[in-house]
């Protein structure tokens, strides 16, 4: 019941034939009613086969009224639709929202790789209706999965074209900026398809001005922005991160511009783990420390926590103050 309640506003967006419904919980006696109160086209694009819409869903939960506003881009024939951020408060836990709908949610696609929500009446579902048919080693399904691959490519192109044409809207929330098309099966064709999607979304997002900084929203490709090497975080517990990362960030900001919001190191690592120009490492930070400051003690404690890796940094950088206060290795 909780899953149905959480997803019903999205199902109403994708179902033109359904204007209202009520969900009853026979155990506790609660009920939630949903109705489409308005859907309006809010943005047209010259020469484009799609437009942006806002759908208003009226929700009455145990007598309490609220309106849920859902943003989407849709082809003009209504066959293809993508829900885009911001998601409505209370219905915005992306970890519990399937990325695939075929009029109704396809449970099992909550971790598809991107948190945009896709629907197309042109897509073929799997028999359990828990996903679309994706490329796989099965000649009997090739016609259907080739059709799905074509339709998904068109959906992705519509999504990318919308944001390329509207750079002020490229500042996605972290949950939508993250890309993680992981596949844990053993079908080599499906594996290659997921790798293709990981590359497709990553190369696209690298170019968008979505990272908040003191200079406004920037792209990771811009010269004046880097993120902390994600390995710094992976080496620390949450408590250690809270204790040491502010000090690391202070020193890092002496040599680069970091995002003004936490969480981007992991996102950028998923985009481009091998692109060294995107990252500022602890070694680079330590090699640029020239003066003793009140934060130095905290940094030295961090290096101690890192064990052999920290010891190596101490050996190769002048970080230990001598009797005269000068830094020595």
Structural key phrases:
single chain, 329 residues, alpha+beta, eight-stranded mixed beta sheet, 10 helices, 34% helix
Molecular structure report:
The chain is of the alpha+beta class and 329 residues long. The protein is built from 10 helices and 14 strands. The strands form 4 sheets. The chain has an 8-stranded mixed β-sheet, sandwiched between helices. Strands 9-10 form a two-stranded antiparallel sheet. Strand 4 (64-75) and strand 5 form a beta hairpin. Helix 6 (238-252) packs across helix 9 (296-305). The longest helix has 24 residues, at 142-165. The N and C termini lie far apart (62 Å). The relative contact order is 0.07. The mean pLDDT is 89.
Largest sheet: 8 strands, mixed
Number of helices: 10
Unreliable segments of 5+ consecutive residues: none
Q: Beta-strand level of the residues, as a percent range?
A: 15-25%
Instruction: Name the helix and strand elements from N-terminus to C-terminus, one letter apiece.
Output: HEEEEEEEEHHHEEEHHHEHHHEE
In a few lines, what is going on in this structure?
The chain contains ten helices and 14 strands. It has 329 residues and is of the alpha+beta class. The model has no long low-confidence stretch (mean pLDDT 89).
List the topology elements.
Layout: H1 2-14, E1 20-24, E2 31-44, E3 50-61, E4 64-75, E5 80-84, E6 100-102, E7 104-105, E8 117-120, H2 142-165, H3 174-177, H4 188-206, E9 211-213, E10 216-218, E11 227-228, H5 230-234, H6 238-252, H7 264-271, E12 279-280, H8 282-287, H9 296-305, H10 308-316, E13 320-321, E14 327-328
Parallel strand pairs: 6-8, 11-12
Antiparallel strand pairs: 1-2, 2-3, 3-4, 4-5, 5-8, 6-7, 9-10, 13-14
Helix pairs in contact: 6-9, 9-10
């Amino acid at each position: 019941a909780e899953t149905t309640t959480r997803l019903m506003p999205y199902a109403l967006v994708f179902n033109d034939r359904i204007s209202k419904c009520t969900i009853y919980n026979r155990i506790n006696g609660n009920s939630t009613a949903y109705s489409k109160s308005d859907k309006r086209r809010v943005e047209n694009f010259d020469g484009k086969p799609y437009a942006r819409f806002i759908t208003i869903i009226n929700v009455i939960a145990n007598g309490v009224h609220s309106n849920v506003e859902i943003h989407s881009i849709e082809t003009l024939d209504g066959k293809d639709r993508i829900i885009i951020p911001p998601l409505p408060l209370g219905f915005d836990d992306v970890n519990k929202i399937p990325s695939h709908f075929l009029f109704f949610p396809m449970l099992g696609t909550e971790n598809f790789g991107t948190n945009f929500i896709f629907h197309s009446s042109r897509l073929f579902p799997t028999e359990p209706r828990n996903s679309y048919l994706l490329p796989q080693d099965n000649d009997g399904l090739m016609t259907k999965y080739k059709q799905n691959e074509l339709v998904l490519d068109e959906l992705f192109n519509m999504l990318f074209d919308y944001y390329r044409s509207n750079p002020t809207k490229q500042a996605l929330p972290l949950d939508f900026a993250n890309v993680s098309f992981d596949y844990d099966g053993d079908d080599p064709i499906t594996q290659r398809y997921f790798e293709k999607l990981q590359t497709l979304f990553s190369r696209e997002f690298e170019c968008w001005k979505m990272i908040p900084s003191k200079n406004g929203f920037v792209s990771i490709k811009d010269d004046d922005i880097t993120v902390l090497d994600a390995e710094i975080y992976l080496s620390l517990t949450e408590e250690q991160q809270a204790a040491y990362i502010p000090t690391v960030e202070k020193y890092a900001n002496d040599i680069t511009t970091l995002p003004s919001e936490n969480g981007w190191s992991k996102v950028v690592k998923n985009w481009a783990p091998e692109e060294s120009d995107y990252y500022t490492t602890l070694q680079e930070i330590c090699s640029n420390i020239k003066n003793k400051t009140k934060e130095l003690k905290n940094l030295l404690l961090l290096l101690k926590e890192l064990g052999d890796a920290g010891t190596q940094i101490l050996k190769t950088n002048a970080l230990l103050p001598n009797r005269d206060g000068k830094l020595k290795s």
